[in-house]
Hints:
By secondary structure, the protein is an alpha/beta fold. The protein contains 17 helices and 22 strands. The strands form 4 sheets. Strands 8-7-6-9-10-11-12 form a 7-stranded parallel beta sheet, with helices on both faces. Helix 1 packs parallel to helix 12 (about 285-305). 1,4-dihydronicotinamide adenine dinucleotide binds next to helix 5 and helix 7.
Amino acid sequence: MPPRVLISDSLSPAAVEIFRLRGIEADFEPSLGKDKDRLAAAIAAYDGLAIRSATRVTADVLARADRLKVVGRAGIGVDNVDIPAATAKGVIVMNTPSGNSVTTAEHAIALMFALARDIPAADASTKRGRWEKNRFLGVEIAGKTLGVIGCGNIGAIVADRALGLKMRVLAFDPFLTEERAQAIGVEKVDLDDLLARADVISLHTPLNAQTRNILSAEALAKTRRGVRIINCARGGLVDEAALRRALEDGHVGGAALDVFAVEPAIDNPLFALENVVCTPHLGASTAEAQEKVALQIAEQMSDYLTRGAVSNAVNFPSISAEEAPRLAPFVALAEKLGLLVGQIARCGVDTLSVTFEGAIAREKTKALTAAALAGMLRPILDSVNPVSAPAIAKERGLSVDEVSRAAQSDYESLVTLVAKTRDGDIKVAGTVFHDGKPRLLRIGEINVDAEFAPSMIYTENEDRPGYIGRFAGALGESQVNIATFALGRDRPGGRAVALVAIDGPLPEATLAELRALPGVKQAITLKF
Ligand SMILES: NC(=O)C1=CN([C@@H]2O[C@H](COP(=O)(O)OP(=O)(O)OC[C@H]3O[C@@H](n4cnc5c(N)ncnc54)[C@H](O)[C@@H]3O)[C@@H](O)[C@H]2O)C=CC1
Ligand SMILES: O=C(O)CCC(=O)C(=O)O
């Protein structure tokens, strides 16, 4: 069955075309994003959900999303997606971090001019038949100081355009390095300095606990009288009530807002003020940007759904379309090694260490570690996957280490898992052979060479003559056919292990017989 994607916001039709060309069924239902009940009712049928800003992907929607593998945001902000809930559900959330940056920066510059020259009010007045030349006395932009709060993709483009307009640009961004500031021609300052010196302030940060109300009443009081404020980033960065008071008493000269604390903004109190210019979250709304983000998100989601490639995910490491096929057999190996550990462990694992040696150590190993963890947790948590596993491990206090090093064995690549449990360490190692199949090479310090099969038996026993005959006899009497048989031991007469692939399930009574054989320390069935 081909993967199915729901587009629940108004995305460019280019996205539908890409999905179809990539063999994905795409349903374009732009009204669903605004109707959470209909969205929740529909979501169970889809592998992917493509959205803009109207769709809210809440925990309730995700709870109904049984097949969902990926949410794709055609745009930047993913604040309309419950990321922890998506991660817990194993759903990748990806965005298009740069597709609409230029367009949004241009909107900020457009709003700056609209404020500086009162363009919306002058337009309305002129069209009403008034010729109010004296009413609209603007300010010149050249030579003024712009304060950019948040100097990432969009903030840096705004700064670049402002420098072209002969403005001086100050930037407050704790993650902006001095070198980068110099390279893009801005002066890196602290927030109070920016507030005290800027004639125009433009916001370009995400909305989070640190940035909410970054322009609070207190911050606004530190600004220059007559300052103009532009927000093309997120409502919530400015305290709207405080802004209204500062606009009314003339301390703030004007504000241009594309985004609001509550959207859609229908009756915001700021609308009543003359020195406020508003647009309905149009920052990204140009034909060019919408085409770019729609194409980009459709390509990214298709790559993930058809090839396992991950790009621009906010909750999983990136894997390119070239890397995905190289990594896929190692993802399977890591997951199977994890499953083996999870099934052998007799009590909870405190720490999982994953070591990558040789060629595989040069690849994106984070995804493989996540796969190993998912495999290890699967015997206790059915629905865990590599996306949700790291968050689940963290929640349970299970620590995970990853080591990458040069080859120290005969194998081109070797993956070793060591799980620390109260009963001692469980160590397993494996590789992928040239046939692309994962192989188990070691259990503890014992060498074995076994393929993973859907139904297997694992036994640990004292290395004594006659064991294999008795083992095979018990299976034969129960009509259980042996497919492959792999053995290993640490020394003659020491500890021995057997990994036996069988056709079909092992009856409980036969398992009990195996456990009762002389010298057997552990006998369990394994599923891969
Ligand atoms: N109005 C619209 O239609 C659009 C709005 N946006 C919004 O614009 C904002 C910026 O987007 P990008 O530039 O692409 O993001 P970005 O991630 O490239 O840049 C954000 C910058 O904010 C900085 N930052 C983070 N915390 C900060 C803090 N506490 N104080 C100061 N700076 C801080 C980061 O270091 C980073 O440099 C986002 O909120 C995005 O959702 C983006 C596109 C369209
Ligand atoms: O999709 C849109 O129109 C909004 C874009 C936006 O806010 C974003 O990309 O963060």
